[in-house]
């Protein structure tokens, strides 16, 4: 990755009409309904954007969408990138750097995750308060990282405290049940074994997934305030573990998604 590559990506998007967005949003697996709320959308498919990776997972459509929600300009990433698709950390987080250069001031992230905390249930929303990086790498571990910001990034508060408080207050006001907890990011794509679920619980994990942490690290590198929520799509009880059903996970994500959309729309109004 070079500054010139980022500049070419940004210039292409600006020519398409992606002008001065205020907010960037990353949509997770099965969480694509938010795009229906975008007014005056302009689309740019990943395979047309210079230097962009291509989304390979069948339920990620792979495009950036620019438009307005609640009167604010934003760019929405429909389809994200994962280690398990064969990308490296720089590829995964390249779109975050592009959105930042386009002008976003806040970043919202969503994902689908499994509930390790057995007090949490399928369909719950979890506000991520902290995370554990179990992906064996960093999106800042490349030779010329100092050209893009400080090499050593403080992660004492990776998730913006003010936006987290606002989302929690919105959930209470709107009658949306919301959990708060620690998200662990693993490589995947295989799901965890019983022993691995037990390990995650010992580590203090409340939910586990295969994304989000690289993007959050880069957001902190860019000093870009970020908030993230998980839609909990399965219950990971090692003592009563059943074979995974991917379609059921997608169905639960779709059913819970309106709650996430409500939280994001209300947060957009308030910032």
Characterization of the model:
By secondary structure, this protein is of the alpha/beta class. It has a single domain (about 5-270), classed as Rossmann fold (3-Layer(aba) Sandwich), CATH 3.40.50. It has 6 helices and 9 strands; from the N terminus they run H-E-E-E-E-H-E-E-H-E-H-E-H-E-H. It has a 5-stranded mixed beta barrel with strand order 5-8-7-6-9. Helix 4 (about 195-200) links the parallel strand 7 and strand 8 (about 205-210). The longest helix is centred in the C-terminal third of the chain and has 25 residues, at about 245-270. The protein is globular, with a radius of gyration of 18 Å. The model has no long low-confidence stretch (mean pLDDT about 95).
CATH architecture: 3-Layer(aba) Sandwich
Indicate the CATH topology: Rossmann fold
Q: How many strand units?
A: 9
CATH class descriptor name: Alpha Beta
Distance between the termini: 32 Å
Average pLDDT works out at 93
CATH superfamily: Nucleoside phosphorylase domain
Sheet bearing the most strands, described? 5 strands, mixed, barrel
Please state roughly what percent of the residues sit in beta strands, choosing from under 5%, 5-15%, 15-25%, 25-35%, 35-45% or over 45%: 15-25%
Strand sequence of the main sheet, in spatial order?
5-8-7-6-9
Task: Catalogue the unreliable spans.
Answer: none
Counting structural domains, the number is 1
Order of helices and strands: HEEEEHEEHEHEHEH
Structural class: alpha/beta
Number of helices: 6
Oligomeric state of the chains in view: single chain
Enzyme class: transferase
Family: Belongs to the PNP/MTAP phosphorylase family.
Pathway: Purine metabolism; purine nucleoside salvage
Function: The purine nucleoside phosphorylases catalyze the phosphorolytic breakdown of the N-glycosidic bond in the beta-(deoxy)ribonucleoside molecules, with the formation of the corresponding free purine bases and pentose-1-phosphate.
């Amino acid at each position: 990755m070079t500054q010139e590559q980022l500049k070419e990506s940004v210039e292409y998007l600006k020519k398409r009409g992606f002008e001065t967005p205020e907010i960037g949003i990353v949509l997770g697996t099965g969480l694509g309904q938010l795009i229906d709320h975008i007014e005056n959308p302009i689309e740019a498919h990943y395979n047309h954007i210079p230097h962009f990776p291509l989304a390979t997972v069948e339920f990620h459509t792979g495009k950036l969408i620019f438009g307005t929600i609640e009167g604010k300009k934003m760019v929405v990433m429909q389809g994200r990138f994962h280690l398990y698709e064969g990308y490296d950390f720089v590829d995964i987080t390249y779109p975050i750097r592009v959105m930042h250069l386009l002008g976003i001031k806040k970043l919202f992230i969503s994902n689908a995750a499994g509930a390790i905390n057995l007090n949490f249930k399928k369909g719950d929303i979890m506000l991520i308060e902290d995370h554990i990086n179990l992906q064996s790498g960093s999106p800042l571990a490349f030779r010329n990282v100092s050209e893009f910001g400080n090499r050593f990034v403080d992660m004492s508060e990776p998730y913006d405290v003010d936006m987290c408080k606002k989302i929690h207050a919105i959930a209470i006001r709107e009658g949306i049940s919301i959990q708060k907890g620690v998200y662990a990011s693993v490589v995947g794509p295989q799901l965890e074994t019983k022993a691995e679920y037990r390990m995650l619980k010992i580590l203090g994990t409340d939910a586990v997934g295969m994304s989000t942490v690289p993007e959050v690290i880069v957001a902190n590198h860019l000093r870009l305030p970020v908030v993230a929520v998980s839609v909990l799509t399965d219950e990971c009880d090692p003592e009563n573990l059943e074979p995974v059903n991917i379609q059921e996970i997608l169905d639960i994500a779709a059913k819970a998604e309106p709650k996430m959309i409500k939280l994001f729309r209300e947060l957009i109004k308030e910032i």
